[in-house]
Amino acid sequence: MLTNKIQKYILKDIIKNFLTILLTFTAIAWTVRAVNFLDLIIEDGFNSYVYFKYSILNLSAILTRFTPLSFLIGILLTVIKLEKQQEFLILWTSGLNKIKIANTFILISVLITLIQILMTFYLNPFLLSKSRILLKKQEDKEISSVLRSNNFNDSFKGITFFIEEKNENNELTNIFVQDDNGALNLALDEIKSSKNTIIIAKKGIIKNNKLLLFEGNIQTKNINNELKNFFFDKTELNINSFTTRTITGFKIQETSSLNLINCIFEIQKKNLQICSTDKKEEIENVSRRLIKPLYITLIALLSSFLLIYKKEKKSAFVKKYFIFFITFIILILSEILLKFSGLSKLNFFTYLLIPIILFCAIYIALVITFNKEKISS
Q1: How far, in whole angstroms, is CA 16 from its chain's centroid?
Q2: Which domain holds residue 90?
Q3: Which one of 65, 94, 143, 271 is CB 3.0 to 4.6 Å from 239, fit for a cystine?
Q4: Which residues have C-beta within 8 Å of that of residue 81, sequence separation ≥ 6?
Q5: Are residues 57 and 109 in the same domain?
Q6: 68 near 331, Cβ under 8 Å?
Q7: Do 75 and 189 share a domain, yes or no?
């Protein structure tokens, strides 16, 4: 009964430290990423709602990147705290088996591993695909954030804008618009068939996400390369007919894990049209989502060696840094080996077996070390 209370106490402390560090790292990284996402408003013309929603949908992917390192630091802080407060010494002298504490570390690592797999395998691709779909909505673009005074802007494909002056009421003066691919949706038949159109206007105003132009002319080149000019008192450009340069196609990290597995092993032939020609990237992404989280359990095992009692303070100090270094190297190697896992299916299964084999070997070494320590004491 007492052992269960001790295990729950240690478990609670590890989780508290882990979550605090994880949320801190995630908040910092998400803030930096959110600043980069400002280009969606400044350069691509999306409104603030899309910006905030897109940033939030990317939060889960950022969080999972810091999980292994946060768990490592969290478990080390817990061990150091319990050692400083002499709590471990009290537990060892009372006859508590160290392997039970090590099993507590392993238990929490397995729980975190399962949550990590759930997020990387299912949740992250789902949320990232939702964020990409969000950028496909043309009605969420705002031209007012794109057009700025004395600035050439080519945020929209095939269209270049220049505005000499723009005030706080979105009133424009001396507007230049060049269309190189027929994106302008104007009523004149000559312009509809033209791929090269220039519009010059003295005044303009942005209203209801539309660009209203006044007192200008339209110069276009027809099929026979003949230049034609059309003067107007008022014309209207609809932003919804423009296409931004933002990548709207799905990236591989936004693809469903089940679809990637289908592509690798060709389970359902009818769905293979969504597959990439690069099998290496598909296998690597499945490894990242399904296998890499398994290395978290190795963190718990290696950290358990901190439970070995050292009389000399200097050797105990060196031991902490040495175990941290070794564990950190394991995390780096898991990332390096991940790059090779996509080269073949053999590499994929090798990458899968490495954490399983290491787990068994390290656990056996841990039990032997604890037994030797018990006999010598």
Answers
A1: 24
A2: 2-137+249-376
A3: 143
A4: 13
A5: yes
A6: yes
A7: no
d(CA 81, CA 311): 17
Q: Residues 126, 261: one domain?
A: yes
Evaluate whether 57 touches 253 at the Cβ level (below 8 Å): no
Query: Given this model, what pLDDT does residue 278 score?
Result: 67
Chain centre distance of CA 51: 15
Distances (CA, A) of 25 to 32, 77, 138, 329, 375: 11, 16, 34, 20, 42
Token representation of residue 312: 């000399």
204 forms beta bridges with 172, 213
Residues 161 and 83 in one domain: no
pLDDT digits (tens, 9 = 90+) for 181-231: 666 655 444 555 556 788 888 888 877 767 788 888 888 776 666 777 778
- Specify whether 178 is located in the same domain as 151: yes
HSE-CB for 289 with a 13 A CA cutoff? 25
- Beta strands 210-221 and 151-153 are unpaired
Same domain, 299 and 205: no
Do residues 323 and 95 make contact, with C-beta atoms less than 8 angstroms apart?
no
Q: Is the same domain home to 368 and 278?
A: yes
Angstrom CA distances, 264 to 32, 261, 308, stand at: 35, 5, 45
- Of 224, 241, 258, the residue at which a domain comes to its end is 241
Number of domains in the chain: 2
201 DSSP β-pair partners: 175, 216
Neighbours of 297 (CB within 10 A): 23
Q: Which of 241, 266, 286 is the last residue of a domain?
A: 241
Beta-carbon count within 10 A of 310 CB: 14
66-109 pLDDT, tens digit each: 999 999 999 988 888 887 777 777 776 666 778 888 888 899 99
Residue with tokens 């359902």: 268
Residues facing 171 on adjacent strands:
205
For 93, the token pair is: 């002298």
| Tokens 């020609």 sit on residue | 277
312 and 356 belong to one structural domain: yes
